[in-house]
Design brief:
This protein has three domains: about 1-125, 3-Layer(aba) Sandwich (Rossmann fold), CATH 3.40.50.720; about 130-295, Dihydrodipicolinate Reductase, domain 2 (2-Layer Sandwich), CATH 3.30.360.10; about 335-405, Alpha-Beta Plaits (2-Layer Sandwich), CATH 3.30.70. It has 13 helices and 16 strands. The chain has helices at about 10-20, 55-60, 80-85, 95-115, 130-135, 150-165, 170-175, 185-190, 190-205, 225-235, 295-310, 345-355, 380-390, and strands at about 1-5, 30-40, 50-55, 65-70, 90-95, 120, 145-150, 235-245, 250-260, 275-280, 285-290, 325, 335-345, 360-365, 370-380, 395-405. The strands form two sheets. Strands 7, 8, 9, 10, 11, 12, 13, 14, 15 and 16 form a ten-stranded mixed sheet that branches. A six-stranded parallel sheet has the order 3-2-1-4-5-6, sandwiched between helices. The longest helix is centred in the N-terminal third of the chain and has 17 residues, at about 95-115. The structure holds L-homoserine (HSE). The site of L-homoserine has 8 residues, from helix 6.
Length: about 400
């Protein structure tokens, strides 16, 4: 019998408890029993009550507990508890992407020095086993492209905005009422959650620390019903895309809402809380990972998978150095865009568009009267900013919005 403890009895923690206490361990050579659950709250009448503790020492100082599931979220006190657990010879399994993205390299090294494991499959993609692929299957080749939908909450909101034609604030409220979005939703809707997940995938891919705060990140909170109407008239949907390239050791990455063309990109068909991640590597080329990216039981399932890996006794060959990876200049990122203008588009603005784009930009049907919608060819971020400044100097015309167009590579 292996004894485990769970730190944090929230949505994911209670899912892990439920899964480990259910009769699903028949394929494991040894059984795992939850001995302690740490939470500051009381859960009277809940089946967790008999093993509930309010003191981390009841877990960290108990030498019979060999696996700790850390699902508290946030950096503190999760960082200190994880370190202590690893130093006491306990393996730690987590879904905590904040902690993994910032301290993953250090915690892996501490785990290795103490002969235990630090596993974090559930930190990216919920129930989708993408980290396992990077940690095992693809270790002998170079991963040079990653693109995907890494946040379930925003994908749910974007899918609903598209099909119900309601404003962002209304859909967010509904998502919160249904428990799909957090009461404090900024990490999801402003793209930081996706940036953290992308940084973890990139750190594993290039073997160096990719600092998520250096990834240019745009969220979905400013999207309007008109943006969705424009996307539809271009046979597209809007998705929050996280994408990156690793070239000659330099990482170029971005998180932003993008138009994804239906019938061309598989990402257009990814709806609700589903995630999809395309990883491209030198030998095996494209791999697509798809599944539930958020939610109690899918995340609990990923954690249980890591626990099963610990029982199998593998060692980690993963290299993740604390040295920071070189990031490309965000101004050099090339994107095609839609640009929606209102007012009187003067000859001066048209000729600026032509000069920057190298040819006349395509015009698409504008679903809103009095507005013009252009598709710009791929241009660098700095060229686009110059274009924005020039257009803004033209008093009669206003930039209503702009989104990048996702290109499958
Ligand atoms: N808030 C996250 C999401 C949870 O919506 O994807 C899973 O990491």
């Amino acid at each position: 019998m292996i004894f485990a403890a769970i730190m944090g009895y929230g949505v994911v923690g209670s899912g892990v408890f439920e899964l480990l206490e259910s009769n699903t361990q028949t394929k494991l050579s040894r059984q795992v029993k939850v001995k302690r659950v740490l939470d500051l709250r009381a859960f009277s009448g809940d089946k967790v009550e008999t093993c509930l503790t309010h003191s981390p020492d009841d877990i960290l100082n108990d030498d019979t507990i060999s696996i700790v599931v850390e699902v508290m979220g946030g950096l503190n006190p999760a960082y200190a508890y994880t370190k202590r657990a690893l130093q006491r010879g306990k393996s730690v399994v987590t879904s905590n992407k904040e902690l993994v993205s910032v301290h993953g390299s250090e915690l892996l090294n501490i785990a290795r020095a103490n002969g235990v494991r630090y596993l974090f499959e559930a930190s990216v993609g919920g129930g989708v086993p993408v980290i396992r692929a990077l940690r095992h299957t693809l270790l002998c080749e170079d991963v040079y492209q990653i693109a995907g939908i890494l946040n379930g909450t925003t994908n749910y909101i974007l899918s609903e905005m598209n099909s119900l034609d309601l404003p962002f604030a209304e859909i967010l409220k509904q998502a919160q009422e249904k428990g799909f979005a957090e009461r404090e939703p900024s990490a999801d809707i402003e793209g930081f959650d996706a940036a953290r997940k992308l940084s973890i995938l990139l750190s594993l891919s290039c073997g160096k620390y990719v600092n998520y705060s250096k990834i240019p990140t745009e969220g979905i909170s400013r999207l309007s019903a008109d943006d969705f109407a424009v996307a539809r008239s271009y046979d597209s949907v809007i998705r929050l895309i996280a994408k990156a390239e690793i070239k000659d050791g330099v990482v170029e990455a971005i998180v932003a809402p993008m138009l994804v063309q239906e019938g061309t990109s598989m990402f257009a068909g990814v709806k609700d809380v589903y995630n999809a991640i395309m990883i491209t590597s030198t030998a095996t080329d494209n791999h697509m990972f798809y599944g539930r990216g958020a939610g109690k039981m899918p995340t609990a399932g990923a954690i249980a998978g890591d626990i099963a890996e610990i029982l199998s006794g593998h060692e980690d060959d993963l290299k993740w150095s604390p040295d920071e990876a070189i990031m490309a200049d965000p101004m050099d990122i090339v994107s095609s865009r839609v640009l929606r203008l209102s007012g009187h588009v003067t000859d001066k603005t048209i000729s600026t568009l032509e000069n920057i784009c190298g040819s006349q930009p395509s015009v698409i049907h504008s679903p809103t009267k009095g507005q013009s919608v252009y598709i710009l060819p791929p241009i660098k971020e700095r060229e686009f900013l110059y274009l924005v400044n020039t257009i803004q100097s033209d008093k009669g015309v206003k930039i209503e919005s702009t989104q990048r167009v996702f290109a499958d590579r």
